[in-house]
Design goal:
There is one protein chain. This protein is mainly alpha-helical. Among the domains are: about 240 residues, no CATH class; about 60 residues, no CATH class. It contains 23 helices and three strands. Strand 2 and strand 3 form a beta hairpin. It is flat and about 70 Å long. About 45% of the residues are buried.
């Protein structure tokens, strides 16, 4: 579902999170992730995390791609289910950036660059990055780091967190504020960071193993990343925010070797996600994308051929070569008719061909098998709108946004669907939710106020708008208080 894909440039918070590795098995891992509980509560961390996410959406919108969101969400939550000391919900997001990086922050938010897909050789390597960032959160490294800073500066935890919030909203001002607050304790911060990085490696490898991934994925990924950038004048952001001295790599290898050898089947979904990134998020033109796929097709195993053909089909869809794309998609769907990667691409294809009923039939069959699936639901609503059937799409999108209130794709589609039938009140309301997700509280309140003025006086509709205005004003005040 290509229509509402969003792109972004990342903001690296990992430099504040960050590396003591011991060679004991995971049952000996201590529970040391609660040292900050006395100064920064979990509820407060959730507030800060929500605020950070809203600012990130506003400053550089995160990619909103239902298929990629589903893939990294499933991968991330498989790891979270096997992590220790989980105290928050987790949220996983991608930003469009070819550099290799990932970061984690308050509230269970993990954000990864699409560049990770260009450097990971398999799913265990990709999962190792997510496991590392999850461990930063479960061990509350950012909160513990701030607690240590607060002991060495005259500033409070609130002041330090306020500087972080400012750093996201206004990077230059925030960096200046952070420099001022940490000027007297730089070496202590570096040592604390190294300890956190190694601790995240240790817990991350244990999580990888318990979740069924290859624990060697972490040292393997670190190893070829270090080899690739060994002589580079400018290392990737990940090696700046996650330093990789030889001792750390050796310790990670030693720890992974303590686990039994694992032989895993090839993850087709990982390679499909990788192909999608190359086709749509690698910032290269269509000819270079097709060249990449052609070169890899020659040397890939037969099991990976469908993933490469899928990438080619995406390029053909995006460049209007629908006949070539359709030939590929028919083959892929014949062998795997309920694969969401394929169904999403087929929806784009038949939308371009204006064969809306063909797309709807494919999606209906899949929804019978996977009711309420987010990828299928969003595609189905989008095709209905393309077919000038917005009235049918609106109730679907209303249910979807109720279940997924933080999904900008759903609100964007709902706003457009209401605009197409001239329902200005509901268009304003949906747009208001988009403004709120980007912390633009004034515009959100203004939109709902206009909708309330248009509604019949004393109606349930007006009461709903007025109640939402009250909620947004409360959120605005709470958001302002965080700064």
């Amino acid at each position: 579902m290509q229509r509402f894909l969003r792109t972004t440039v990342g903001i690296v918070l990992s430099a504040l999170l960050c590396t003591q590795t011991l060679a004991y098995a995971d049952q000996d891992l201590p529970d040391i992730g609660t040292t900050a509980a006395g100064t920064l509560t979990i509820d407060k961390e959730l507030e800060y995390g929500d605020a950070y996410m809203r600012i990130l959406r506003a400053s550089s919108p995160i990619i909103s791609d239902p298929v990629m969101d589903e893939y990294i969400g499933n991968l991330g939550h498989q790891l979270v289910a096997h992590a220790n000391n989980v105290k928050t919900p987790f949220h996983f997001h991608l930003i469009r950036d070819r550099s290799v990086n990932a970061f984690a922050f308050f509230g269970g938010y993990v954000v990864a660059n699409t560049g990770l897909f260009l450097h990971a050789n398999n799913e265990s390597e990709l999962a190792s990055v997510f496991a590392h960032e999850i461990s930063h959160i479960t061990q509350r490294h950012l909160a513990r780091h701030m607690e240590a800073q607060a002991r060495n500066t005259p500033l409070t935890i609130a002041a330090l967190v306020g500087s972080l919030l400012l750093a996201i909203a206004s990077p230059e001002a925030g960096i200046a504020a952070l420099n001022a607050t940490t000027a007297g304790s730089m070496q202590a911060s570096i040592n604390y960071t190294r300890s956190n990085e190694q601790e995240a490696d240790r817990f991350g490898i244990a999580t990888l193993a318990r979740a069924g991934f290859n624990p060697k994925g972490m040292p393997d990924f670190f190893g070829h990343l270090a080899d690739q950038y060994r002589y580079a004048s400018t290392p990737p952001p990940m090696l700046l925010s996650h330093p990789l001295p030889a001792a750390r790599l050796t310790e990670a290898r030693d720890r992974a070797n303590n686990y039994p050898r694992v032989s895993l089947p090839v993850s087709l979904n990982f390679h499909l996600a990788q192909a999608r990134v190359i086709a749509r998020y690698a910032n290269i033109d269509s000819d270079r994308s097709l060249d990449w796929f052609a070169r890899h097709l020659k040397k890939s195993s037969p099991i990976l051929k469908p993933t490469i053909e899928y990438g080619e089909a995406l390029v053909y869809i995006d460049t209007g070569k629908v006949a070539k794309a359709e030939a590929i998609m028919k083959r892929l769907l014949a062998n795997d008719p309920y694969n969401n990667f394929y169904l999403d691409a087929a929806s784009d294809l038949y939308s371009k061909k204006k064969e809306y009923n063909t797309a709807l039939n494919l999606l209906q069959k899949a929804l019978q098998r996977k009711p309420n699936n987010a990828v299928l639901t969003i595609n189905y609503a989008n095709i209905l709108m393309e077919a000038q059937r917005s009235k049918e799409a609106i109730p679907i999108l209303q249910r979807y946004t109720h279940s997924n209130p933080d999904d900008t794709v759903g609100w964007s589609l709902l706003a457009d669907a209401n605009a197409s039938i001239s329902n200005e009140k509901e268009q304003l309301a949906a747009q208001a939710e988009l403004f709120a997700l980007r912390a633009d509280w004034n515009k959100a309140i203004k939109n709902y106020t206009r909708a309330s003025q248009m509604a019949t006086l004393g109606s349930l509709e007006q009461a709903r708008y007025d109640a939402r205005i009250d909620q947004l004003r409360f959120s605005q005040q709470r958001f302002a208080a965080l700064k």
